[in-house]
Amino acid sequence: MVLLGYLRCIFSARLGKQVLKRMKSNIKKGKNEQQVAAAAVKPELDPKDDFQQISTASVKPELALSIKPKVDPKDDFRGKIITAKWIWFNGSFQQNVLLKIDKDGKIEDIFKEDHELFTIEEGKIVDLGEMALLPGFVNAHSHAFHRELRGLSQIGNEGADNFWKWRQNMYKLVEDIDYEKLKKICIDTFSEMLSVGITTVGEFHYVHHSNKASSDGFFDLDMAVIEAACEVGIRLVLIETLYMRAGFSQSEINPEQWRFSSATVEQFIERVEDLREKLKNNDLVTLALAVHSLRAVPIPEAIKLYKYARQNNLPLHLHLEEQPAELDDCRLVNEGKDPAEVLLQNILENGETEEAREGSPLAKPQIEAFGFASVTIDNSLITAVHCTHTKRSNLDEFVKRKINVCICPCTEGYLGDGIPNLSEFDNICLGTDCNNRIAMFEEMRW
Fold first, then answer.
1. Residue 319: how many CB atoms within 10 A of its CB?
2. Does 180 lie in the same domain as 73?
3. pTM of the complete model beyond 0.85
4. Is 310 exposed, middle or buried (0-12, 13-18, 19+ CB in 10 A)?
5. Mean pLDDT of the 26-48 span
6. Is the same domain home to 162 and 251?
7. Are residues 207 and 74 part of one domain?
8. Mind telling me which PANTHER family this protein's record contains (predicted)?
9. At what angle do helices 179-195 and 221-232 cross, to 10 degrees?
10. Average of pLDDT values for 355-366?
11. In this model, does residue 373 exceed pLDDT 60?
């Protein structure tokens, strides 16, 4: 875990106790419901008070005192031991916990104050005071360049219009994008992520080319994203994305999509191999793969990439069932099957059967007949993004196969897509997607 950033959560514990005590004393036996309600919502302090300026009086406001850190949070903590009022440890916020930081800024050890290492000289212990420290967030799905579209959706129109009109705005954005522009956008986006506690981002990257007339401009924009992440200092999983056609019934991309084109699967895999070689000594950047969507990649090519991903133990992502139109178009050319059913029955089953016959360690005998394949494979390397309109029966099959579902509630709400039909058993992760608002707590709140 790298101490690249932490969230400063302010806890006004003493103020909270005073408010609770006041509420209890006001709710006396015999009061009617209106009196009880009034007592329960009466604040201890006037909410109109301005706590930005700390009083110079001898008795300072409680709230102002509680948010004042003992040290500047921008201090260099390398080679020191730090503590704070609350630290996330063993699955909960705990007090009297210390973090030992090595010379490179990595957390070397975590222990309680009664640990033997607590005897270390006090000068090396930095107390952050009334703060809460927790591990950095993992943003599992991002399109960094979409941040430039803030304010350009179709909010106010019906949900069916929002996404597709927003998509046209996205095409306009990439018309004149080049290496330096994309790098600058990514630096801005990744910096904002880091400032709100995101320390790892999965960048679902498909804007590959800056110049279709030159070999130097072929897949060159991938390095712009990588350089931006390295300069900012955020951990990056570059989700290199295969994109081959404009829709289910089309065999080619549209003119405005040329920057996304991956040519053939073989050329795309060659590019991935080249990136893997370049990144083998990079501690900040790793690779994953993506089928952009079943709308953008034909089934045979999706199967080829899936097999390559499994053979090389690489995660594989795909956009899935974000829009009703995607399901309608898919059914027209796939014998009535939804994209999720194509994924399960056509891509995964065909990609797994050969492996199973060869005795793959990931293939396990199926104890219960699920109706999809003769063997059950651990598909935990696969992440389906959105699943906004996915049937519950297909999501249940995802659970059995350990397929992950990445939801992006702020984006899905912002564009009027809807919210997926989730259960407590789904393997869920979160992403900021279009980055209209970068706030993991807000993603959780939805």
1. 24
2. no
3. no
4. buried
5. 40
6. yes
7. no
8. AMIDOHYDROLASE-RELATED DOMAIN-CONTAINING PROTEIN, GUANINE DEAMINASE
9. 30
10. 46
11. no
Residues contacting 407, CB < 8 A, separation 6+: 386, 387, 419, 420, 422, 428, 429, 430, 431, 443
Helix, strand or coil, per DSSP, at residue 17: helix
Q: How far apart are CA 81 and CA 3, in angstroms?
A: 12
pLDDT value at 19 more than 80: no
Largest CA distance in the chain: 83
* Selected residue with higher pLDDT from 415 and 280: 280
Which of 133, 150, 173 is a domain's end point? 133
Residues 19 and 35 in one domain: yes
Distance CA(411)–CA(336), nearest Å, equals: 28
Q: Using one digit for the tens of pLDDT, what is the confidence trace for 62-99?
A: 333 333 445 555 568 888 999 999 999 999 999 999 99
Which residue reads 């630096």 in tokens?
187
Q: Is residue 235 within 8 Å of 225, Cβ to Cβ?
A: no
User: Do 184 and 321 sit in the same domain of this protein?
Assistant: yes
Whether 354 shows a pLDDT value over 70: the answer reads no
Domain of residue 236, residue span: 137-445
Across 197-226, b (16+ Cβ under 10 Å) vs e yields: bbbbbbbbbbbbbbeeeeeebbbbbbebbb
Is 148 in the same domain as 115?
A: no
- Pick the residue with more confidence: 165 or 290? 290
